[in-house]
Design the sequence.
């Protein structure tokens, strides 16, 4: 048994990382309080913008997986058990390309702020992953075109083609998620960088990588379901009461099962990684872990009631949505506590960054931009036909 | 300790601010970077030994904070030169992005023509062209933009790192414009049929202005790389942003956007079914107004040439035949497009069928490729003029690395170390990786064995030691004499097809000679460049 364990440890580069002592000064103080103000500010911005990115990315990942599953199961067309034009899969299919575009646009900001704070770690991880990382670009291009193809009824006609296109798009999106997870894990392992470079090793043999992939992918479902529920409640695709009822059952099951799998993977990560467990329960991470737990309870409660009632009351959808957002926000901070504690004092440690010029102009255009976007949303909303009460 | 001194080692602003002025070299500022005494002594020694002359404006105000360069793992692109990868992607992205920006204005124009009753077919044109815009620019255009960023990290993380450090709020501002472009674009695409006419026009105006705004912001950063202007003295983001080539470059690119939009629309309109020949000709003639700004291109190009550094100008005026040729390709292709479009279409003497439109678009791609090649090429030997050489080292770092060695800070072992029979050849490979691999391959594109292989061993030593004198667009060599000798031996060994039994070169006289040549060449860029720059600065 001990020989087997040693083999597992030998092929898992992350195990060596876990042995690295975490910086207690970071774990034992309030989050961000140990960083220079500018670095903390950039890091806070990175996390806020990451939450926005995750919002769209969860819809894109879970939505693609759902559409793929619907296509395989033959529930792809509008004449599914869920009703005619209000079919959930049709609404999701319709919005997937826009959601991915929004996710890509939203993803620029966290990448920008991360490379300010963790420049060495982020760039090195990019370089070490090389082809596997750069492949996300063509993969995303193909995935988005497949999503457009899913919308083109006259091009994708047979069930087999629909299933193939749907599964293809879903597989590509999962690959992108995998690449991001691996990038993050590589960036956490400065002591392994030279050996990884020499051997061109990947982290695909690491259990932690797959657990985190499972956590992110399954964890995308509760938020996706909450947003999709909002879309149906707001009358997307002309969804009526019957469609909403049918969709309520499906969405509640997806959200609860996805959340449970994600939680199981999270527990697995904590067992596998002492550093992650210690970060989560530390003084710095604990308050945010509690926020995430509360959010999970609220979302789970809301979905359970929805499942029982088989309806989508706005209050419950709002609760599910808020709960999921709290989970994402809380876990984003916990993830950052882990990274800070692990990288502190290493070659990949966060930098003391001088405050760059042009901030006032950014704030000005951000305010104008938000105002204009609000105007666009309002203008479109006013033009839409009224929804049923 | 949560925040130790080592954490600060990558800080942008430096601890030692070197300034070469009329009174010679002096340490003028101690910043926030922590170094030990030995490192401090080394850099001072390097400065003294390498002779930062008072007359050298290239070495002058340099932030020496990063005098030990950040070392990253270097990937091998095989026979493909890294510049080709990022250049190819860049040309493709610029072409698509400029089409998308101009396309926004073109669609707005047609929407207005339709709403005011001036063009009854405008509605169909708007619908078709905008669908192409969404499918191309929102997918391939957006992702090749992200690709430029990620590829820059692969090619030169130090360069993109400096750009991000200096201009991150500009990039963040550009990000706001991306959001505006995307939101307005999708809102128009999805809800056009139910929106009021004024709202449609407003959405297209927002989409167009936001697209052009993203060009405005990125243009400031890209033009800063060639002409950082007063930024080299002040390090003010706005001095760098509104640099000498900002306006000519922005206006030139704006004209290119309009032209590409016109050509793209002509292709789409020709591909649309259901138009009669007369209808098609009429609509394409309406697009021709977008070609008219081309008349200003010679003027804008002249303005651009006037404000670029004198040595950069000399490359494209015959100093580098390749760059001169690419400039002529860009100018010739533009002239052909302009001639056809302005004379033929605007004056309505010619029509433009699908094949012609595609051919002209291909010429435009050629013009874009030529222009982008020249823009990248004339920065040499820098990636950020006066701040960062093409081999990702700052002038101050070169002085330091002449003492400490470029390989001393590299923690990454060689892949396939067993393939290198001696320590010296292995060292040479590491030097190649750090100093040459950004722009060269070993025996592929721009391969060193092709460029240097035929030289004698003494020629190689001399030419690399005085690299910036050997070729004016090469940076000074950054390393010790023993590293230089290792590089020379490695290139010779590769040229000899890795002959077995390759001897180590350990003659102290050789190292001494190399050291003398390195000293003679100094760490400043090519003397010709300095001379041209001084001439440009002197009163006329």
Sequence:
């Amino acid at each position: 048994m001990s020989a087997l364990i040693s083999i597992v440890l030998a092929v898992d580069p992350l195990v060596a990382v876990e042995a690295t002592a975490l910086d207690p000064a970071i774990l034992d103080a309030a989050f961000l309080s140990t960083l220079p103000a500018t670095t903390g500010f950039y890091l806070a911005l990175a996390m806020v913008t990451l939450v926005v990115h995750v919002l769209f990315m969860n819809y894109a990942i879970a939505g693609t997986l759902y559409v793929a599953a619907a296509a395989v199961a033959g529930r792809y067309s509008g004449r599914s058990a869920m009703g005619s034009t209000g079919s959930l899969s049709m609404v999701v299919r319709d919005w997937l390309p826009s959601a991915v575009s929004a996710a890509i646009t939203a993803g620029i900001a966290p990448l920008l702020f991360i490379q300010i704070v963790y420049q060495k770690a982020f760039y090195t991880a990019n370089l070490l992953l090389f082809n596997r990382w750069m492949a996300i670009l063509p993969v995303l291009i193909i995935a988005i075109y497949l999503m457009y193809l899913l919308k083109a009824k006259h091009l994708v006609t047979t069930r087999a083609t629909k299933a193939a296109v749907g599964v293809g798009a879903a597989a590509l999106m999962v690959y992108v998620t995998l690449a991001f997870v691996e990038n993050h894990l590589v960036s956490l392992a400065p002591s392994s960088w030279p050996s990884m470079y020499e051997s061109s090793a990947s982290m695909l043999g690491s259990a932690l990588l797959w657990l985190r992939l499972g956590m992110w992918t399954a964890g995308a479902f509760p938020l996706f379901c909450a947003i999709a529920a909002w879309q149906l409640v707001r009358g997307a695709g002309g969804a009526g009461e019957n469609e909403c009822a049918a969709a309520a059952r499906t969405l509640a099951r997806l959200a609860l099962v996805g959340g449970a799998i994600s939680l199981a993977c999270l527990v697995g990560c904590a067992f596998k990684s002492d550093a992650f467990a210690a970060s989560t329960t530390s003084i710095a991470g604990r308050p945010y872990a509690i926020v995430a737990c509360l959010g999970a309870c609220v979302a789970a409660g809301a979905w359970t009631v929805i499942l029982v009632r088989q309806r989508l009351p706005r209050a419950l959808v709002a609760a599910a949505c808020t709960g999921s957002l709290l989970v994402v926000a809380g876990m984003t901070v916990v993830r950052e506590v882990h990274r800070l504690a692990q990288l502190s004092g290493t070659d990949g440690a966060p930098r003391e960054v001088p405050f760059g010029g042009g901030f006032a102009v950014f704030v000005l255009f951000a305010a104008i931009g938000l105002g204009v976007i609000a105007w666009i949303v309002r203008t479109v909303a006013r033009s839409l036909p009224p929804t049923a009460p | 300790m949560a925040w130790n001194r080592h954490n600060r080692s990558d800080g942008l602003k430096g601890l030692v601010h070197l300034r070469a002025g009329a009174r010679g070299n002096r340490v003028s500022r101690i910043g926030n970077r922590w170094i030990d005494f030995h490192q401090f002594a080394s850099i001072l020694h390097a400065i003294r030994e390498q002779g930062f002359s008072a007359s050298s404006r290239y070495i002058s105000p340099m932030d020496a904070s990063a005098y030990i360069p950040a070392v990253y793992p270097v990937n091998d692109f095989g026979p493909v030169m890294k510049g080709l990868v990022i250049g190819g992607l860049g040309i493709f992205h610029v072409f698509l992005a400029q089409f998308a920006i101009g396309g926004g204005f073109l669609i707005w124009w047609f929407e207005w023509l339709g709403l005011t009753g001036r063009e009854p077919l405008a509605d169909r044109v708007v619908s078709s062209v905008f669908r192409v815009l969404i499918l191309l620019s929102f997918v391939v255009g957006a992702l090749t933009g992200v690709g430029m960023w990620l590829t820059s990290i692969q090619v030169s993380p130090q360069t993109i790192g400096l750009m991000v450090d200096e201009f991150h709020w500009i990039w963040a501002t550009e990000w706001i414009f991306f959001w505006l472009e995307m939101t307005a674009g999708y809102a128009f695409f999805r809800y056009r049929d139910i929106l009021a006419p004024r709202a449609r026009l407003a959405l297209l105006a927002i989409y167009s202005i936001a697209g052009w705004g993203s060009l405005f912001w990125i243009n400031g950063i890209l033009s800063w790389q060639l002409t950082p202007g007063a930024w080299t003295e002040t390090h003010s983001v706005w001095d760098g942003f509104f640099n000498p080539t900002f306006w000519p470059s922005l206006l030139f690119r704006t004209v290119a956007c309009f032209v590409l939009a016109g050509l793209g629309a002509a292709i789409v309109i020709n591909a649309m079914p259901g138009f009669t020949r007369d209808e098609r000709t009429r609509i394409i003639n309406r697009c021709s107004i977008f070609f008219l700004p081309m008349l200003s291109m010679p003027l804008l190009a002249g303005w651009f040439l006037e404000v670029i550094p004198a040595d950069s100008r000399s490359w494209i005026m015959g100093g580098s035949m390749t760059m001169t040729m690419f400039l002529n390709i860009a100018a010739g292709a533009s002239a052909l497009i302009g001639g056809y479009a302005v004379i033929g279409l605007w004056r309505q003497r010619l029509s433009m069928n699908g094949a012609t439109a595609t051919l002209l678009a291909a010429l435009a791609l050629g013009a874009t490729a030529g222009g982008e090649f020249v823009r990248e090429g004339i920065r040499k030997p820098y990636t950020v003029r006066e701040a960062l050489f093409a081999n990702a080292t700052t002038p101050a770092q070169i002085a330091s690395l002449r003492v400490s060695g470029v390989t001393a800070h590299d923690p990454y072992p060689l892949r396939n170390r067993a393939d290198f029979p001696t320590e010296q050849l292995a060292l040479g490979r590491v030097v190649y990786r750090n100093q040459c691999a950004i722009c060269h391959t070993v025996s592929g594109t721009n391969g060193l064995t092709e460029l240097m292989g035929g030289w004698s061993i003494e020629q190689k030593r001399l030419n690399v030691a005085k690299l910036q004198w050997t070729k004016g667009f090469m940076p000074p060599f950054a390393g010790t004499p023993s590293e230089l000798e290792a590089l020379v031996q490695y290139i010779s060994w590769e040229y000899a097809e890795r002959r077995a039994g390759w001897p180590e070169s350990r003659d102290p006289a050789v190292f001494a000679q190399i050291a003398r040549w390195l000293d003679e060449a100094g760490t400043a860029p090519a003397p010709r460049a300095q001379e041209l720059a001084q001439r440009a600065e002197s009163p006329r």
Q: What stands out?
A: Chain A touches chain B through 69 residues (CB under 8 Å). Chain A is about 75% helix and 0% strand. The radius of gyration of chain A is 22 Å. Chain A has a mean pLDDT of 88.
